[in-house]
Amino acid sequence: MLRRVGSGGMATVWQVKGPGGGLHALKEMRPQAEARREMTRRFKQEFEVTSRLDHRNIVGVHDFFAAQETLHIVMEWVDGLDLRATLRYAGRLDPGRLALIGAEVASGIASAHAVGVLHRDLKPENILLSRRGEVKVADFGVARILGTRLTATGVILGSPAYMSPEQLAGVSSQKLDAATDVYGLGVLLYEMAEGRDPLGLKRHEDLLAVLKAKREKKPRPMRKLDHPELAELILQTLESDPANRPEAMDDLARKFRRIARREGTVRADLEYLARVALDNRDNDRKAKGEPAPLRPAKPRRAARAARRSAASADTRRQSQAPQASPSPRRGARLRNAAASAADQLGRSRGRPEPTAPDSPAPSRPEAPRARGGATTRYASQVDDLSLKSRSAKGAGTTALAWLALLLFALAVLFLGASASLTESPLGLLELLVPLP
How large is the average pLDDT for residues 195-199? Predict the structure, then answer.
């Protein structure tokens, strides 16, 4: 036993080290004589329900045993904190990270729905965010398996602020469906974005007042979430009529993930969020309703994105700009440049330079002119001719150098062969050409 992590009405959670040295979470049922039989049955059901779920967004369980006159569940250890602490120490979530967390939670709950399990108690305290940016659903203590009747009609289990109207009204657990968890997820995401309850409920509101508000009141508009599509999707999950909510969790997960992808949010953003929340918790710094800081972009990546954005903007601006005909002044500049180029070419060939004392000197090409943030450079025939001339001279010099090197190599080979065959460097030459 290392330390106590937290406790609720039904159990206490400890951080423990196993025989192999690995860390685990140990959930210990709190002994209460007045409701021991019901709690024992529900504790066993939690293990049975969770052990049949195998998904990366659900906290896994490893063992179930009795010791010290109570029951224990050995679970996966998640090194991080829950979303309630994330909201308290990091701040409200932006659209990208809110959508990604919604997609991860919905994906895990969809896998539970696929095997007939309803969570029925989705709230920030039951969603864990690890240091590595993983999102995991925990605490299936009030979950229900389809086809069973563990909860009697009229018995309310769960957190009233996050319960659906039909669940809060005490509807038979056999008549509840996936829409109940959809409602709980909507309340959770609304609170993570706005920092308040969608209906303005107080923490210890009377159950009848809560039920009346959920049936009659509309959720308050989302003013702090600057993303109309995501806000509309969250408000759809909070409809009082289950028929008006999104039908399936897997479809909801796809919609959330599509929004997160468009926002460019990845798991590294959730990892940074967890690190900020943990650092602030260790230093006792609370967010006080401020938005959570975004992950700083890497300098190279940010500079590359800025260059691409500027280049695409210039391309669009140039493609949209009308093609204007050359102005008379530009035509005069081009003619002057052509005349200057012809004069330079004539001087290079030895022709005398024409004299015209009364004619104005040819104008030089103007420097690049800035227009609308971009730089426009006019083509110059002088530059073109001088470049061709330099290229031709360079090509001729290179060819002569290679020819001389080849002749030298042939001469060396010939003299070497002659010395080895006739013991004289010119022996072969004397055989071919008579020498005096």
Answer: 92
Q: CB pairs under 8 A, 24+ apart, for 22-25?
A: 22/77, 23/77, 23/79, 24/62, 24/74, 24/75, 24/76, 24/77, 25/59, 25/74, 25/75, 25/76, 25/77, 25/78
> 404 in helix, strand or coil?
helix
Q: Which of 183, 163, 51, 215 is nearest to 106 (CA)?
A: 183
The distance of Cα 253 from the centroid of its chain, to the nearest Å, equals 16
Torsion of CA 35, 205, 184, 76, to 10 degrees: -50
Backbone angles phi, psi at 434, to 5 degrees: -65, 130
Tokens encoding 288? 């006080």
| The pair of three-digit structure tokens given for residue 183, joined into one six-digit string | 């409602």
Beta-strand ranges (E) seen in 214-352 are none
CATH superfamily of 80-296: Transferase(Phosphotransferase) domain 1 (1.10.510.10)
How far is it, in rounded angstroms, from Cα 207 to Cα 189?
A: 22
| 3-state DSSP percent of the chain in helix, strand and coil, to 5 | 50, 15, 35
The amino acid sitting at 144 is R
| Cα(153)–Cα(408) distance, integer angstroms | 107
Among 151-165, 171-185, 192-206, name the one with the lowest average pLDDT.
151-165
The model's pLDDT over 29-69, given as tens digits with 9 standing for 90+, comes to: 877 655 677 778 888 888 888 888 999 999 998 898 988 88
**Burial of 238 per CB tally in 10 Å (0-12, 13-18, 19+):** buried
Please tell me the distance from the alpha carbon of residue 381 to that of residue 337, in angstroms, as a whole number: 6
Q: Would you give the DSSP letter of residue 247?
A: S
Any idea how long the chain is? 436
Number of Cβ within 10 Å of residue 320's Cβ equals 7
Tokens read off for 240: 């009082």
Identify which of 296, 292, 294 has the alpha carbon closest to the alpha carbon of residue 92: 292
Q: What CATH code is assigned to 3-76?
A: 3.30.200.20
Q: Are strands 127-130 and 61-67 parallel, antiparallel or unpaired?
A: unpaired
258-271: string of b/e by CB count within 10 Å (b at 16+)? ebbeebebeeebbb
pTM over 0.70: no
Q: Over the chain, what is the mean pLDDT?
A: 79
419, with CB counted inside 10 A (0-12, 13-18, 19+), is middle
